[in-house]
Amino acid sequence: MSSEGAATLLISSGSHGDATVVRAVGELDYDYAPMFRRELAQVWSGDPGATPTLVLDLTGLTFCDSTGLAELLWILRRSQETKTDLSLAGVSRTLRHMLTTTGLLPYFTIFASVEEALRDR
């Protein structure tokens, strides 16, 4: 987390046809992972099959630590359980490197932008 508690994570979500787009802006770390998980859990609340497509817009993500990576793995597992088509959009070089060095990159579908993810799904 940034010094003096200045870091934050803002999360918003919205529907785009049969897809849900969840946008994360800020830092996905130990302090903000629970909030991120709560928002994503809302996506699957009620009917787990109601969200056939989920796009995580990570364009505004400025930091992701191992706890944030664990949250992405939780989302991946949950999307597999619910047969939700998961895409990551706007992945930074740093996060891509993190996914690559941990061997997790092949498990995620990554697009440059939300628009590309929605168009090419």
Q: Beta-sheet strand percentage?
A: 25-35%
The number of strands is 5
Trace the largest sheet across and list its strands: 1-2-3-4-5
- Structurally, how many domains make up the residues? 1
Distance between the termini: 34 Å
Q: Give the H and E element order.
A: EEHEHEHEH
Task: Give the integer mean of the pLDDT values.
Answer: 89
User: Sheet with the most strands?
Assistant: 5 strands, mixed
Roughly how many Å is the radius of gyration?
Answer: 14 Å
CATH homologous superfamily assignment: STAS domain
Portion in helices: 25-40%
What form results from the Cα inertia axes?
globular
Alpha-beta content class:
alpha/beta
CATH top level is Alpha Beta
The assigned CATH architecture is: 2-Layer Sandwich
Low-confidence stretches: none
So how many helices? Answer: 4
Looking at the structure, the CATH topology is Transcription Regulator spoIIAA
Characterization of this structure:
The chain has 4 helices and 5 strands. Helix content is 35%, strand content 31%. Helix 3 links the parallel strand 4 and strand 5. The N and C termini lie far apart (34 Å). It has a single domain, classed as Transcription Regulator spoIIAA. Strands 1-2-3-4-5 form a 5-stranded mixed β-sheet. With 121 residues, the protein is α/β, with parallel strands linked by helices. This is Anti-sigma factor antagonist. It holds the Pfam family STAS. It comes from Streptosporangium brasiliense. Belongs to the anti-sigma-factor antagonist family.
